[in-house]
Specification:
Blueprint lengths: L3 E3 L2 E2 L4 E6 L5 E8 L2 E7 L4 E6 L4 E7 L6 E9 L8 E7 L5 E6 L3 E6 L4 E7 L5 E7 L5 E6 L15 E4 L19
Length: 185
């Protein structure tokens, strides 16, 4: 992303999204980004999900599992189509292929079906600036949600800045995939 010259204000279209290959080489795959966020992969769908936060939308790319290449970007979910405020922040994916998206400045996490472009569920969070989420716990059925406490015109009081655990969602995350980087100097 671009330089933040005031809290919450950035030089726009200065960021990029990069792919790092196993040999450590970096490749720019998306240019003119405001804020890169919400990276998720669905190997079974051969899909990569990504958000440039100030687009207020989630993109899907075709994903080549063997090379890591992405192609054919398309919008699968727009905040305005669902009357949502705030911006797209970090996200994760469940075993059913649904996205769980932190809604920064929205005090919630959104469960989204990216195939249908539908909003399935809203999970309230007692912090305005919800930043990211991931599944954890022994059964990967607990959603851990992070938040910020940035002073952007209004002080964010506790529990802002905390990490929250949400249970009882009837969803499970996927196990992490190991990454093997062969970095050379």
């Amino acid at each position: 992303m671009g330089y933040e010259y005031e809290p919450g204000k950035f030089h726009l279209k200065k960021g990029s999204l990069y792919r790092i290959d196993s040999d450590g080489s970096a490749h720019r795959v998306v240019r003119d980004v405001d804020i890169s966020n919400g990276l998720c992969w669905d190997e079974s769908e051969r899909a990569f999900y990504y958000a440039d936060s100030f687009e207020y939308a989630i993109r899907r790319y075709d994903y080549d599992v063997d090379t890591g290449a992405i192609s054919n970007p398309r919008i699968v979910f727009r905040y305005k189509d669902h009357g949502l405020d705030g911006i797209v922040d970090g996200m994760t994916i469940d075993t059913d292929g649904n996205l769980w998206v932190a809604n920064f400045d929205g005090s919630q996490v959104l469960k989204i079906d990216p195939r249908a472009g539908s909003l399935l569920q809203r999970v309230a969070v007692p912090a305005l600036q919800t930043t990211s989420c991931t599944f954890g716990g022994p059964a990967l059925d607990q959603l851990y949600v992070t938040s910020a406490a940035m002073h952007r015109g209004a002080e964010q009081r506790a529990p802002a800045g905390a990490t929250f655990r949400v249970s009882g969602l009837a969803a499970r995350g996927r196990p992490d995939r190991p990454v093997n980087l062969q970095l050379t100097q």
